[in-house]
């Protein structure tokens, strides 16, 4: 099959592109930098230099393709111009959908985020639940709006489109910025990291990269039109996560629980530095607000309808630790 993909130089997109090529597909990848995509070079991969907001380049790259994977998004914690989130995540997604209609693409998979459902205030989040609180940052709100716009295209044009929404992804990456969970693991292993946010009892959901890639492939194959699938793995607290990491790595650290008031001070200073000097902050108050809630999910739709049994957290962490250590040699 000939497949169009955006975001192929990102954490998930690179691994998905690699898998598609290994499975014998021909891939058209829209990239801003061909040099960044060098690790993906393959006889069945064609790189198209362009930008999501340049509809001509999107259309040219998609020509002749039967299916679309749209993963590209602006997911950083800060943008000098907040409109960047809307432009890339909403308008960029619409450009992809217009090209899909133009080229009569048979199937499309749109990568979102489980964050659009918000925190789990009334038990584990499921796809049929409504959000309980307002959006906490521009990334969440722009991704929710993008999903809404895509559904308009499904209704008007009948294009078979499925949504996949990962939780906190971790594991070996090929190119692109590594996941925030990976960064925590790396700091624990090699930089003496000893900090646990707050009391460490807030729940998050962690999914291994291989399961995320498989979720995309199964969504293309089995997903129902207009249906969303949370790609979730294991629910765990920070205390549990670092406890597992200590056992797996053999490294014991005396962890320090950092109160929220200190975290918010750090985030505010980071934001001021970004505004004054243009340096990308590690954290902003808007993103830190997520740490006040549990983000527990129920991935049963993924397991029952897509047939994916996610790897256990200890097994996934063990694979990630082994990979990180092999890179450090």
Structural overview:
By secondary structure, this protein is α/β, with parallel strands linked by helices. It has helices at 11-22, 55-62, 83-102, 138-157, 180-190, 209-222, 238-249, 260-277, 285-288, 300-305, 313-328, and strands at 2-6, 26-31, 45-49, 67-70, 107-111, 160-166, 168-170, 195-197, 203-208, 228-231, 234-237, 256-258. The strands form 3 sheets. It has a 7-stranded parallel sheet with strand order 3-2-1-4-5-6-10, sandwiched between helices. It has a 3-stranded mixed sheet with strand order 7-9-11. Strands 8-12 form a two-stranded parallel sheet. Helix 1 (11-22) links the parallel strand 1 (2-6) and strand 2. The protein starts with a strand and ends with a helix.
Feature tags:
329 residues; alpha/beta; Rossmann fold; three-stranded mixed beta sheet; 11 helices; 17% strand
Write the layout of secondary structure elements.
Elements: E1 2-6, H1 11-22, E2 26-31, E3 45-49, H2 55-62, E4 67-70, H3 83-102, E5 107-111, H4 138-157, E6 160-166, E7 168-170, H5 180-190, E8 195-197, E9 203-208, H6 209-222, E10 228-231, E11 234-237, H7 238-249, E12 256-258, H8 260-277, H9 285-288, H10 300-305, H11 313-328
């Amino acid at each position: 099959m000939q497949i169009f993909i955006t975001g192929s130089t990102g954490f998930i997109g690179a691994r998905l592109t690699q898998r598609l090529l290994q499975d014998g597909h021909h891939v058209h990848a829209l990239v801003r930098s061909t040099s960044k995509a060098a690790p993906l070079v393959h006889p069945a991969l064609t790189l198209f230099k362009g930008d999501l907001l340049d509809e001509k380049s999107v259309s040219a790259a998609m020509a002749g393709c039967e299916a679309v994977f749209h993963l590209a998004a602006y997911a950083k914690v800060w943008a000098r111009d907040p409109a960047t989130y809307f432009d890339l995540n909403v308008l960029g997604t619409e450009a992809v959908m217009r090209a899909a209609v133009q080229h009569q693409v048979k199937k499309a998979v749109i990568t979102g985020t489980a964050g659009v459902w918000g925190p789990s205030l009334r038990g584990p989040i499921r796809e049929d639940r409504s959000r309980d609180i307002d959006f906490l940052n521009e990334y969440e709100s722009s991704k929710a709006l993008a999903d809404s716009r895509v559904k308009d295209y499904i209704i008007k044009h009948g294009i078979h489109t499925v949504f996949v929404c990962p939780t906190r992804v971790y594991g070996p990456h090929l190119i692109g910025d590594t996941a925030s969970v990976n960064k925590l693991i790396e700091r624990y292993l090699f930089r003496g990291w000893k900090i646990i946010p707050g009391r460490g009892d807030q729940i998050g959901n962690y999914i291994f990269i291989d399961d995320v890639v498989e979720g995309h492939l199964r969504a293309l194959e089995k997903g129902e039109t207009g249906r969303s699938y949370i790609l979730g793995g294991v629910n765990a607290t920070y205390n549990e996560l670092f406890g597992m990491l200590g056992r797996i790595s053999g490294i014991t650290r005396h962890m320090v629980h950092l109160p929220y008031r200190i975290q918010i001070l750090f985030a505010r200073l980071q934001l001021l530095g970004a505004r004054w000097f243009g340096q990308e902050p590690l954290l902003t108050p808007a993103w830190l607000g997520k740490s006040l809630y549990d983000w527990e999910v129920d991935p049963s739709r993924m397991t029952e309808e897509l047939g994916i049994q996610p790897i256990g957290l200890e097994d996934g962490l063990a694979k990630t630790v082994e990979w990180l250590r092999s890179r450090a040699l």
